[in-house]
Amino acid sequence: MSDDKYTADLVEFQAVLDGGLFTVERVHEHSLPHPYCITPAHVGHAADHFNGMLGKEAIESLEKSRGQGCCGMYEGPRGECDTRSRYGYTRCRLLYDEHVTQKILLVKLTRDLGNKEASVEIFKAKALMMKKGYEGIGFTNLDKEFTIAKPEGK
Questions:
Q1: Contact 34, 92 (CB under 8 A)
Q2: Which residue from 79, 115, 119, 150 puts its CA 20 to 30 A from 56's CA?
């Protein structure tokens, strides 16, 4: 997911990655283990106790009153998630704060690169990534259009 809230970040990252090897494309938000799922219980609790404002405080208040997490997702035996209960699935009991959303910067290669050349350029973005809370960089056209590879014979 990438929208206007990341426009300034994209401009900053493109300025840092100034070697012409990468084009900064977008920001992807990845939720682990899955997005926190709001249920009718959350909406009702917010309506009854928070004047209809469903925010972090309302969610945490409901979790506190129940003594456990109350995400609406179900997890299957192989880690797959669903919003419906199925045979062999268990309800997610993780707290709201235990559901993490990571920001990943997605870039596009402009040509084939060697490992060292790519590493040097990517390393330029490390400080900015740490400052802004990004977890990593993904390549949108790797192996489709261009590659990052060791030089021949090494």
A1: yes
A2: 79
